[in-house]
Amino acid sequence: MPATRRVFLQSSAAAVAASAIAAPARTDANSTIRAAVLGLHGRGRTHVEHLERVPGVEVAVLCDPDEVVLRKAAEDFEKKYGRKVATETDLRKVNDRKDVDVVSVATPNHWHTLATIWACQAGKDVYVEKPGSHNLFEGRKMIEAAKRYDRIVQHGVQLRSNPALQEAVQKMRDGVIGDVYLARGLVYRRRPSIGNKPNATPPKTLNWDLWQGPAQERPYSERYVHYNWHWHWDYGNGDVANQGVHETDMCLWGLGVGLPDEVQAMGGKFLWDDDKETPELLSSCFKYRDAKKMIEFEVRPWDTNDEQGVGVGNLFYGTEGYLAVNGYNGYKTFLGAKREPGPSGSEGDPLGRHFKNFIDAVRSRDASSLNGPVETAHTSSALAHLGNISYRLGRRLEFNPKTETFVGDPEADAMLTRQYREPYVVPEVV
């Protein structure tokens, strides 16, 4: 374990939470499960909608450090659902509430792991958006916290709740395209310039310190808030860990593999002279020596072709054909040298199924029934992190999946974690 991993101190809030006795879960099929949603500017509103659709679930609390965003979300909630909802600007106060059973995390990436661990320590079950972690160290801490505090943690990789893609994976297991040796993940999204924004004074309605959380303090700027944080290393991880985690996870699921042995990535900014720090274009390769398999992952930022109708999705190649996954919509197979159409299946957006699967597991207390268990929050996110590290260092890397460290490379190991800012410290779970 790198020395940097051993120096983390638990924040006082986390230490208090860790010593608390987890609240009993509401497993009675007739009881109401009360949920809190963290982060309301974008994805969190979808969380509210889908949680409200699950029978026996009630969204009880909305939380966001931006008072303007929070007030608007609460007003919209009352109009749509005909009742008022409690609001909090500080997620730590959400964890203190006895009327919250589950927490749904839709914050920026750099908050995902700490929000999840603190909620687990407070006795809450958690649905956390992708990527589950902001760096590889955090993913392992999430797994440890879920086990240590006996919590149900569902990762937001809803492709795993799509019946058509469950069928596709089983077809590959059954050999429909022969021995599968290669998976491609594609994220071809049109991402325009974000321009150049100066540093400024944060709005009085935004708790900028809380928004930054675990990241080192920076001056406020509109270049970060409220969406373009995706393209800055302190808060996001680029498109490979934005849209891309759905596809990295699909690659791992389809191939039946975990963390790789070798990583190499290259790319850069070729289009815009703007404030983005992360690459616009990124091509990453991940090799599994013993399994004789490989993953290729490509992020393209602008006008481009698709591949077999896939612009965002996956392609799997085997000895007898290939299989295409088109976004959330389903799959098609093409068999033999003539690429004859084979089995196929389609299904709509599975997000509702994914939330219901989470709530069913909360009631049953059976983590093994989760379609997107906490382990996927680690592995699918880690693939993106490893590619980003190779890109940032500009070289091929050897990785030991057993120790989850690079082979003889302390410079790369240092990038498996970050320097945390008290009191927003991801704790060592003991």
From TrEMBL:
Signal sequence residues: 1-22
Stored PROSITE patterns: TAT (PS51318)
Residue intervals of the Gfo/Idh/MocA-like oxidoreductase N-terminal domain: 33-156
Cross-referenced PANTHER family: BCDNA.GH03377, OXIDOREDUCTASE FAMILY PROTEIN
The EC number(s) this enzyme carries: 3.2.1.49
TM ranges: none
GO molecular function: alpha-N-acetylgalactosaminidase activity; nucleotide binding
One Pfam entry name: GFO_IDH_MocA_C2
Gene, per the UniProt record: nagA_2
Keywords tagged on the record: Glycosidase, Hydrolase, Signal
UniProt-listed InterPro entries: Gfo/Idh/MocA-like_OxRdtase_N, Gfo/Idh/MocA_oxidrdct_glycsds, Gfo/Idh/MocA_OxRdtase_bact_C, NAD(P)-bd_dom_sf, TAT_signal
Gfo/Idh/MocA-like oxidoreductase bacterial type C-terminal domain sequence ranges: 201-251, 354-425
Name of the featured protein: Alpha-N-acetylgalactosaminidase
